[in-house]
Amino acid sequence: MSKTNSKAIQLTPLEEELMTILWNNGPGTVHDVIAHLPSNRQLAYTSISTILRILEKKNILISKKSGRSHVYVPKVTLETYTQKTVNKIIKQSFAGKPLALANYLLDNYKLTSSEIDELETLIKEKLGQQS
What we know:
This protein is mainly alpha-helical. It has helices at residues 13-25, 30-35, 45-57, 78-93, 98-108, 113-130; strands at residues 61-66, 69-74.
């Protein structure tokens, strides 16, 4: 899977939902995507097909013909999408300062004692990598 250029990747909530299915389960047809939707999520075959074609036009997916179906393959990795999304948030909402994002998360999300211990361990590991 190739990476895209540094331009931000814009996905609607529905596009992100379908991409998450493909990222988690690998390449698939429209029927495969439908099979992985939550049971309470009713979307028409044509709607999913249209969204997947839009994602292909956005250069997020590629499709390969397989018999009468198309198999959709993520062209952008979940890691690349996450990185670009978080970078955009840091730039737009936190004046380009990652520490401001970390501070916001710590101030606004209650961490358990074990999560704080994990965070401390991660910080210590990162400090060890820098020396």
